[in-house]
Design a protein that fits this description.
35% helix, TIM Barrel, 5 helices, six-stranded mixed β-sheet, alpha/beta, two-stranded parallel sheet
Amino acid sequence: MKYAHNVYWAKNPIQDTINAGLEALEFDLQYRMFSKDIYCGHSWRPLNCMYYGLLDDYLREIILTPGIKYLILEPKTFTINMGILAGTIKWFKYNRPDIIIVMSVQYKKHPHQWLRGLWLKRFFRLYKEELGILDKRLETDLHEQVDLYEKKWYHF
């Protein structure tokens, strides 16, 4: 199944996903420790300004928009507060119990990615049953990405 990749880069993320005939969308997640907020953004770099909005704001829009069946959440750092993310997912599931939450639980080569993999495995183990989360790689057929935005030179 195809899904909208890094959807927050699109001009109208949620509506563009539906207009493209897709029922699944992905958000990369970053955590700002000082504000305690989870942002949608692409890079783990500490001084990066590539944040596109609060996850909560996107979730509020999805709650009001029919047509989405899967929400793929990809934490891009191991510094995200597990309790805050779990609480956000619980709130969302309360408002839209029909949407399936998916995460990609995997290890990669680089040290920061390996630490993120450890964090994801722990989060998944702690909250899988309670939140009804699926592992994207093992439990779904969400494998083909569709980019709904024009790629820019700063997309890394």
